[in-house]
Amino acid sequence: MLHVRAVCPAEHTAEVVELLREHPGAAHLVLHRGAAVSPEGDLVEADVAREAADEIVDGLCGLGLDRTGGITLEALDTAVSDAADAAEEAAPGEAADAVVWQELLGRTGEESRVNATFLGFLAIACLLAAVGVLTDSPVTVVGAMVVGPEFGPLAAIAVGLVLHRGDLVRRAGLALLVGFPVAMAVTLAGVLAGSAAGIFDPGTIDGNHDVDFVYQVGPASFVVALLAGAAGMLAMTSAKSAALVGVFISVTTVPAAGYVVVAAVAGRWDRAGFSLLQLVVNLAGIVLAAAIVLIVRWRRQRSAPLLRPLSRG
């Protein structure tokens, strides 16, 4: 279940309470008169079945609470209550299949921002990939896949395209366009420093065949990217985040970026070019598959009113 908190002006409190009271997917309704300070108003709380959350949030937005107050959602790990059980049984569908579109917009929007943490993880992932390539270590390359944070912006691009949110697409695109060059520049400095210190020899990549899959791009690369993108978006929309780890170690994005740098330093421009193509193919496949999954899920809920845009803040 999800916990919904709605800050609302006093003149809309009765409508909010009525909406939650009458919805069969809501339980544990609580009203705090005058509890909200900024913005000023009342605080209404309720626990709702995940499969009913999208309809309830849309109804609250229809009352203008996204503009005059505020709506927050919080996942509940456990709800021990007959009322909660009844709400989940009364809500249509299955919780695992329910998409809370406002939650998805908020989550992908947060993960698509360019910040020091995103750049740091991406740079570390590329450095790990480079070390894996130089040492012919598939395990290290897989570790780089797990560390890489690039799926967040890719998912955000897919969400933005499907829900016509140009601001989300631009923000996520900027994260990728800035993040990968910065990470590759840091990796280039690391490879050059390691080579100068005698720690690594970039020329050894000619004999490192255990990591050849990083630059060997082909139809299978696109198929894997499609499957990974579909699985990743299913995981995000169904709140099954554990499946995302499998997505991260399925696609050759960060390893390809790391291989580009190592191959360039070694003067193997053919491999650098194929690695760059591998990167592009995987990025495009993930976004395409993720968008298709969203379109299919959106059409299943096409009877719901169109989502209102979230705040650009």
Automatic annotation (TrEMBL):
<feature type="transmembrane region" description="Helical">
    <location>
        <begin position="114"/>
        <end position="135"/>
    </location>
</feature>
<feature type="transmembrane region" description="Helical">
    <location>
        <begin position="213"/>
        <end position="235"/>
    </location>
</feature>
<feature type="transmembrane region" description="Helical">
    <location>
        <begin position="141"/>
        <end position="162"/>
    </location>
</feature>
<protein>
    <submittedName>
        <fullName>DUF389 domain-containing protein</fullName>
    </submittedName>
</protein>
<dbReference type="InterPro" id="IPR005240">
    <property type="entry name" value="DUF389"/>
</dbReference>
<feature type="transmembrane region" description="Helical">
    <location>
        <begin position="174"/>
        <end position="193"/>
    </location>
</feature>
<keyword id="KW-1133">Transmembrane helix</keyword>
<keyword id="KW-0812">Transmembrane</keyword>
<keyword id="KW-0472">Membrane</keyword>
<dbReference type="Pfam" id="PF04087">
    <property type="entry name" value="DUF389"/>
</dbReference>
<feature type="transmembrane region" description="Helical">
    <location>
        <begin position="272"/>
        <end position="296"/>
    </location>
</feature>
<feature type="transmembrane region" description="Helical">
    <location>
        <begin position="242"/>
        <end position="266"/>
    </location>
</feature>
